[in-house]
Every structure is written in C-alpha cells, then in structure tokens.
Amino acid sequence: MVSETDARALVRLVADVAGFTGSLQTKKSQLMTELAKLIDADAWAWILSRAERNRDSPSVVEFLHGGMDEREFGAYVAMMQDSQTPVEYAALNRLRLTESRFTRSWDQLVTETEWYGAGNRRLLDQVGFEQVMYSVKVLDNDGLFSGISMKRRVGRPRFSPRERRMFHIVCGEVDWLHTCDESLASMAYQVRALAPRQRAVLTLMLDGNRVKDIASALGIQPSTVSTYTKEIHRHFAVNSRVELIHRFRSGDGGDLC
Questions:
Q1: What are the backbone angles phi and psi of residue 47, rounded to the nearest 5°?
Q2: How far out from the chain centre does Cα 113 lie?
Q3: Disulfide: which of 2, 122, 140, 192 matches 144 by Cβ 3.0-4.6 Å?
Q4: Which residue intervals of 60-180 are DSSP H helices?
C-alpha cells in the first residue's frame, strides 16, 4: 500500500501528463521523466523488445531514455548487447516467462556478490549507475515486452519498497505507456534476427548518433560501423538512414494507413 499523499501525487502525475499535447513518444518520455523526479531516480530507460528464450540480450525496436548523456547512453547500449550481458538479465528473462507483469530491484534478482562482482563492473564503472529497478509488461506470447528501468548513480542509496511500489503502480496502471504499434511489433522479429553488435549499432542510429559517435561508444572503427550500417540497410530493405528511421516511425506502408 502507498500512503494517501503518494496516491494523490501519482494521480496528479498521470493526469497532468495525459493532458499534454504531442506524440505518444513525447507523453511516455514526459511521464517517465516526472516519475523519476517523484521517486528520486537519476535516469530512466524504456524499451520495446522481442526476446528469445535462449538469449538474454534484448532485441530493441524502440528505445526512449532520459538522464543519461551521450557517452553514458552509448556505454549502456553496448553493455546490453555484449556477449556477457548484465548479471540480472537472466533472472529478468526467467520472470518474463512466468509473470505477465512484474517490478523488481536488482537485489531481488541477483546476490550482492553478483551485483558488485566482475560481471557487473561495466554498469558501475563505465555507465556509472549502481541502483537499478525494472518494471516489465509482457505484450504477447512470443517474447514481445515493454520494459522500463529507473537508475541511481554510484554512491546513492537503494530504492526503497515505497519507491518501488510507486514505480510499479504507474507502470502497471497506465496502459498507453505500453502501447505498441503493430508494425513495430512485426519489425521486432527482424531486429531479433540481427547479431548483437548490429542491434547495438541500430539502436544508436535510431537515437540520432553519427558514425563516429557510434564507433566511440562501441569501441570499434568508424569503417566497421559503416559496414554494419550497410548490413542493417540491406536487412531492412532500405537505402539510407533517413529511410530506416522513417521505417521504424511509420512502418513499411503495407497497412495502407
């Protein structure tokens, strides 16, 4: 249970954001930004992804975020698609197979030894976050899910049960937060077919990063990024970055809308 004061704050938050004009992406970003302030989080991320049972790294088709600069976001995307995925991903995927909606902080997913061990140093040392909690809603029976994370920087206290409950309520009760365009849900299968490094390049491209910025974030040569870009264009049957971004924003036109 949350207090009456917290309940009023949540109702006011959702009502205020629901009244905003603009795209659904703008509303989602505004809601997460204001919720982060309410629960004292430093950063947030929202993904739409289609996962596979035998692979922990997500196949992201839409990614919104706030509170991370370009370097942090690049390091975060690279970490998500690394061959050694974050230590909590396996536990999150197991929950996703049995629960349709759940919220967990890191200490409910892995041990303290695992969290602060060698396998999680990239999050702590390179990305710069220590406290993380997730809220996930499963959208179909073939791995499609909406996932949201709230983060605090290194040295900050853990999220409290009260803050976790407030996070869970908003993410669970605001249906439009998880609204998924049918074309994106379909394209998630195509993203899932990409190699992890290609998926990382795709995510950074869709976020507006240039070739040299992507290369810096992933620790590879710009020529390698260009090669991956050509492969991604070929995979999605497009001829340019502009066409690729339009494809993810508007679909392939096959629905005649």
A1: -130, 150
A2: 25
A3: 140
A4: 70-80, 89-96, 112-115, 121, 161-173
| CA neighbor of 15 nearest in space, from 174, 166, 149 | 174
CA distance 168 to 172: 6
Locate the domains of the chain by residue range: 4-180, 184-250
For the chain, give the number of residues.
257
Q: Domain spanning 4-180: which superfamily?
A: Transcription factor LuxR-like, autoinducer-binding domain (3.30.450.80)
Residues 6+ positions from 215 with CB-CB distance below 8 Å: 221, 222, 224, 225
How far is the CA of 178 from the CAs of 9, 46, 118, in angstroms? 21, 10, 34
Single pTM value for the model:
0.87
Residue with tokens 């990239």: 122
- For residue 169, what are its two tokens? 């309520």
- As a whole number of angstroms, the distance between CA 246 and CA 205 comes to 12
What CATH architecture applies to the domain 184-250?
Orthogonal Bundle (1.10)
